[in-house]
Amino acid sequence: MLIGEAARVLASPAGREDPYPAYAALRAHGPVVRLGPGFYAATGYDAISALLRDPRLRVRGWPDGPASRLVADSLMKSNGTGHTRVRRLMAAAFAPRQVEALREAVTAQAVRLADYLAHLGGSGEAVDFMDEFAYPMPIRVICALLGVPAAEQQWFRERAQEMTEVLEPRQPGSHTIAADRAATELEAYFTDLVRSRRNAPGDDLISALIATHDADGDLSTRELIANLVTLLLAGFETTANLLGNGMGVLLDHPGPASRLGADPGLADAYVEELLRLESPLQLTSRWAAEEVDIDGADRIEANSHIMVFLGAGNRDPDRFPDPDRFDPFRESVQPLSFGAGAHYCLGAALARLEARIAFPVLLARLPAMERAGEAVRRDRTTFRGYANLPVYTEKLDRPTLLGLPGTR
Ligand code: HEM
């Protein structure tokens, strides 16, 4: 497949549903290829790892609407010392020790949601795993972290999902109406919340960040709000997709799944392989203001935009033998799913904790869970995940279409 054709496939609904053949076709032309003037695609593991760590490559926001302006004002789209300053302030809340302290609460949440899933599926009806587990779990964890009341979780979920549109590839000048509306509402919400927490601080991330802000003025109120919204944007659907994509793979591999259900000690290795195989975030981007040479790749010309396909690097056969196969016993997986370098995911430890707890809990409590018909994917390039993933939680004899008893 020629480069242009592979790029067109990736931008089509079929390519969004299954981007892996088009990634392979692009990679066959080199780990970084030129798609057009000032426009490149990176698909090789080593090249992506090098690009993300290269200080000559910068993140860049396109602040042309309320949603993209908020993201542009957050650490996700800031560079150099400005980025380091904000990242340092926020990193404390996501340090391994802080995250480990959430283990008990996350386990309790996973057990509660798994048991509710079992209750809903107990009558033999199909249940949507995304609605009943994959989305509720991370939104509850983030809301607890931010100190947002449980009653507002559904409101948050809807807006966070709408905001993700702003991280999808789009034509210059195109509008992100739903994302902009969600951003405006979230900004107003967090502005009020910051005001009330300032008067009555709690034991939560927002109160801690306000204290930092008020102590040395190192974080402006605008930055504070932009980063709070960005946490929701960066941490919610990604984690839901890790849980949904991972469950999809496990349902298709009942042998390895039952091993994990019986031995939660395998969870670390399984989660790395699930992250690799179906990266919840497939794409990020970088900007090269100057010419950049990466080993074995096309030279990147100055003033170029690079689409960095993390999901493609994760399936690079030079790095992972038989890359399309699920093999939780691979040596040294180190997927690119959380990025690399200065912008390496701030919430990686938290997302890993949630998944490492959730899968063994689900598989141990619902060992008979199986797919209930066709799952539907969200039509997205950047975020890879299911809109719904119907499951049966129990093996019951169900009538076939012919009315004969059967197990489907
Ligand atoms: C499976 C779940 C997750 C995945 C796959 C994921 C993926 C990523 C990736 C690839 C980046 C780097 C983007 C780039 O370099 O351009 C990133 C950055 C970030 N992530 Fe995550 N993320 C996940 C969960 C979370 C969670 C739970 C949080 C927080 C609650 C979070 C907060 C952030 C933040 C704040 C950044 C920006 C860091 C910076 O620019 O310095 N993420 N994430």
TrEMBL record:
Q: Name one Pfam family in it.
A: p450
Question: What SUPFAM superfamilies does the annotation carry?
Answer: Cytochrome P450
Q: Which UniProt keywords apply?
A: Heme, Iron, Metal-binding, Monooxygenase, Oxidoreductase
Show the InterPro entries listed in the entry.
Answer: Cyt_P450, Cyt_P450_B, Cyt_P450_CS, Cyt_P450_sf
The record's section on PANTHER family has: CYTOCHROME P450 YJIB-RELATED (PTHR46696:SF1), P450, PUTATIVE (EUROFUNG)-RELATED (PTHR46696)
**Protein family (similarity comment):** Belongs to the cytochrome P450 family.
What is this protein's record name? Cytochrome P450
This protein's species is Streptomyces vulcanius
